[in-house]
Write a structure and sequence with these properties.
heterodimer, A: mainly alpha, Four Helix Bundle (Hemerythrin (Met), subunit A), 2 domains, 6 helices, B: mainly alpha, two-stranded antiparallel sheet, 13 helices, 2 strands, globular
Chain lengths: ~160, ~325
């Protein structure tokens, strides 16, 4: 049962992501990407990681994509149907990065790492303990970075007095 | 994993029950709102269809179903058709995690009166309410109309802002109950309701859910004086009906959550648990109707200032104070 569900969700995720890349209209692309995030969240749920599943929906589908949509709705899109394919120069860097990702996925697939076993469900308490005790310094550094980003955004968005 | 047929049947039964009760309640909420508003404004309200106008929701339903399903020129076809469902479905899905009564024993099985008792129940509520934003945003955008677009941009900004203070107001609840599981939160209040410890968080949560329901005084996305009907201006028939019913489902669900988080859920003396829970939900629903009958609408900048400069900092201070209080008390 779980296996069938996994394959259905995996197909939805992959197709949703591909359509999000190939779709020319930005709002449609967002809807496809949200679909893919949602099915990814259910896959996390099947892997006994409900907390990660919820974060996937709250942060990615619910916050990041909503902000993208907010910006896109405010912009004048012009004519997205007439967008052209990127040129060779624009393809170069994405292709290079894509090859790196594909090679790393391939090396993981070829070696004998099993899928994480879904027997033990990590509770919220265990997750929080690991996050705030073992990785406390890393968390602090990341939060400082986010704070810098907020201050930077405030600086850029300040009202300029003539 | 093993699947017990009786468990599956019970779960399906609970889902069917929740759907039936919520949709009926939503329909009668519309009726109740019209009656109470009429009473506030010294009118009679709907009183022609059936005794005391009680069959009015049925008449409304027939009217909505038989109306022409209209789509403006230049509208984005699929998103225009999808948006009402995206607004209504997350609202009703949230009810899955709300415990609406004490556990029963049926056929030798202990039945929790809750569709899914997840250990991340509170987060599921946050997740689904952030998904519900898409219905408003896409509905207004896909209509290809400036009133609808303005309404949906307002709606987006309002929902994002007030979701933040709503989430922050729930942090002290989780700290007190030490769990995201809604049944644990309810059980933690068997002695004393959380509203006693957290009156400020309760007020912040109440204001935020009024904004999440897009009700007066926060009904800027559909401000009829300036934006015709806001994000659902171009909708007609049952698609408009879905937006409309979605709003009332939202009132019921968020009222149920407020009762669960702060008023002890189904706990209460003498009366059976289910009665207590429905009583609390109906009290919240009445409060929302009452507020609609008495308050004017906020201005848009006032709404944003209130959310970001008053509610969110207050909620953060409240979390800090709660943390210190819990540490000092041990």
């Amino acid at each position: 049962m779980e296996t069938y569900l996994f394959y259905i969700l995996a197909v939805v995720t992959v197709i949703g992501t591909l359509l999000a890349i190939t779709e020319k209209h930005p709002v449609h692309a967002i809807v496809y990407l949200v679909t893919s995030f949602f099915s990814l969240a259910v896959i996390f749920f099947l892997l006994a990681a409900p907390l990660i599943a919820m974060f996937e929906v709250i942060i990615y589908a619910g916050a990041v994509m909503v902000l993208f949509m907010f910006v896109i709705m405010m912009l004048d899109l012009g004519r997205p149907d007439e967008a052209t394919l990127p040129t060779l120069r624009q393809w170069l860097l994405p292709t290079f990065l894509g090859v790196i990702i594909l090679v790393s996925i391939g090396s993981v697939a070829v070696s004998h790492y099993g899928a994480p076993s879904a027997v033990h469900e990590v509770s919220v308490k265990e997750f929080a303990l690991i996050l705030f005790q073992k990785y406390a310094v890393a968390i602090e550094i990341i939060s400082m970075q986010l704070l810098f980003a907020v201050v930077g955004a405030l600086y850029l968005g300040r009202r300029r007095t003539p | 994993m093993n699947y017990d047929p009786i468990d599956i049947a019970l779960t399906l039964g609970k889902i069917a029950l929740v759907f039936f009760v919520i949709l009926t309640m939503a329909a009668y909420m519309v009726f109740a709102e019209r009656k109470v508003l009429a009473w506030v404004q010294d009118r009679k309200g709907p009183n022609r269809v059936g005794p005391f106008g009680l069959l009015q929701p049925l008449a409304d339903l027939i009217k909505l179903l038989t109306k022409e399903d209209f789509r403006p020129i230049g509208a984005d076809k699929w998103l225009f058709y999808l948006a009402p469902a995206m607004a209504a479905i997350p609202a009703i899905m949230i009810f899955a995690v709300i415990p609406f009564g004490a556990p029963l024993t049926l056929f030798g099985h202990t039945v929790t009166l809750q569709v899914a008792d997840l250990n991340v129940g509170l987060l599921l509520f946050m997740a689904l309410s952030s998904i519900a934003v898409y219905g408003v945003a896409l509905g207004g955008w896909a209509s290809n109309s400036k009133y609808a677009l303005l309404g949906s941009i307002r709606g987006l900004a309002q929902l994002i802002s007030y979701e933040l203070s709503m989430g922050l107001a729930l942090v002290p609840v989780v700290m007190l109950a030490r769990s995201f599981r809604l049944s644990d939160i309810v059980n933690a209040q068997s002695g004393c309701w959380f509203i006693v410890y957290q009156p400020l968080a309760f007020v912040i949560f109440l204001i935020s859910i009024a904004a999440e329901c897009k009700r007066i005084p926060f009904d800027l996305p559909e401000a009829e004086g300036e934006l015709v009907a806001g994000f659902h201006t171009e909708y007609s028939g049952m698609r408009f009906g879905l937006f409309f019913v979605g709003e009332y489902i939202n009132i019921i669900v968020l009222g149920g959550l407020a009762a669960t988080f702060f008023l002890g859920g189904w706990h209460g003396p003498w009366l059976p648990p289910f009665v207590w829970f429905s009583g609390k939900v109906l009290a919240f629903a009445f409060l929302f109707i009452w507020v609609r009958g008495t308050l004017p609408r906020l201005r848009y900048d006032q709404l944003m200032h209130f959310g970001w400069k008053i509610l969110t900092p207050l909620a953060l201070i409240n979390i800090l104070v709660t943390g210190w209080w819990m540490v000092l008390r041990g």
